[in-house]
């Protein structure tokens, strides 16, 4: 009968114990971090492979493998973001370009596990801030750091110059063995032979333009010497230097070198 029928309602689940507020803040294990980094790397490679054919044709002019190795035998990969006529301030989607670069680098670095070097032609515009580079480093396959011979920055931005100055008292020697800055193409020597290693014509023209600018600035500085000029390079350059200094200060404070840190 209805009165004697057993209830078929599902049993009420026992109340679970309250979750610790620290449970959601648990530090991920190294294995979990490595797995997340590999997934970010895969996502970047997929992004690079999905670049349109038209855009690939354009990016091939901004990144390529050189036929000339370093003097230690590592293969050289060049990254030179700029405009169609060599414009230094031409807008480039750097994350899409980086993703496309990884599709070119992957076989040599990850599959074949061979050494390589990066020549990054900045044309005095870094295009990536330090936190962007940290994000990139955290998204690379381990083979990149393992097989990287060095990064050579040509025509460095003020951000790179300031970073090298700030890191000089605190960075380990290994950094300086793998992170080089060259004001001119000819200064790639002795790590890379500039007579054999060649770049597009517009980059050499920029190199000559920098020499001309340096001569004009020296002449102007000689005229203004003692004239009470507000900045070393002028309003716009001083502004760039200040922005770079503020950025590097923020990065160093994040890494534990705060306001109270003293450098002897």
Account of the 3D structure:
By secondary structure, the chain is α/β, with parallel strands linked by helices. It is built from nine helices and five strands; from the N terminus they run H-H-E-E-H-E-H-H-E-H-H-E-H-H. Helix 1 crosses helix 3 (94-111) and helix 6 packs across helix 9. It is globular and about 60 Å long.
Record keyword descriptors for this entry:
264 residues; disordered C terminus; disordered N terminus; 45% helix; globular; 9% strand; alpha/beta
Structure annotation, total helices: 9
- Which stretches are poorly predicted, pLDDT < 50 over at least 5 residues? 1-17, 228-233, 257-264
How would you state the average pLDDT, rounded? 82
| Total DSSP E strands | 5
Helix content: 40-55%
Strand content: 5-15%
Secondary-structure element order, as H and E? HHEEHEHHEHHEHH
Q: Care to give the gist of this entry?
A:
This protein is α/β, with parallel strands linked by helices and 264 residues long. It is 45% helix and 9% strand. It is built from 9 helices and 5 strands.
Write the layout of secondary structure elements.
Blueprint (H helix, E strand, L loop, with lengths): L29 H20 L3 H7 L3 E3 L9 E5 L14 H18 L4 E6 L8 H8 L4 H6 E7 L3 H10 L5 H6 E4 L18 H24 L10 H20 L10
Parallel strand pairs: 2-3, 3-4, 4-5
Antiparallel strand pairs: 1-2
Helix pairs in contact: 1-3, 6-9
């Amino acid at each position: 009968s209805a009165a004697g029928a057993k209830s078929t309602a599902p049993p009420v689940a026992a109340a679970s114990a309250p979750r610790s507020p620290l449970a959601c803040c648990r530090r991920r294990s190294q294995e979990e971090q490595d797995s997340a980094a590999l997934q970010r790397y895969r996502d970047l490679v997929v992004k690079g492979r999905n670049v349109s054919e038209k855009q690939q044709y354009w990016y091939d002019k901004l990144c390529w493998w050189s036929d000339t190795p370093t003097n230690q035998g590592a293969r050289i990969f060049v990254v030179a973001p700029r405009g169609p006529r060599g414009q230094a301030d031409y807008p480039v989607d750097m994350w899409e370009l980086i993703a496309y670069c990884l599709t070119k680098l992957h076989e040599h670095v990850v599959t074949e596990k061979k050494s390589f070097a990066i020549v990054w032609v900045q044309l005095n515009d870094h295009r990536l801030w330090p936190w962007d580079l940290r994000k990139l480093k955290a998204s690379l396959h381990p083979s990149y750091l393992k097989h990287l011979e060095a990064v050579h920055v040509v025509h460095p931005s003020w951000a790179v110059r300031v970073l090298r100055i700030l890191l000089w008292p605190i960075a380990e020697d290994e950094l300086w063995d793998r992170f080089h800055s060259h004001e001119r193409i000819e200064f790639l020597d002795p790590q890379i032979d500039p007579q054999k290693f060649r770049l597009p014509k517009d980059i050499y023209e920029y190199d000559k333009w920098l020499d001309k600018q340096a001569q004009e600035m020296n002449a102007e500085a000689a005229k203004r010497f003692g004239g009470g000029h507000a900045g070393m390079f002028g309003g716009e350059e001083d502004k760039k230097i200040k922005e770079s200094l503020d950025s590097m200060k923020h990065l160093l404070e994040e890494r534990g070198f705060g306001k109270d840190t003293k450098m002897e």
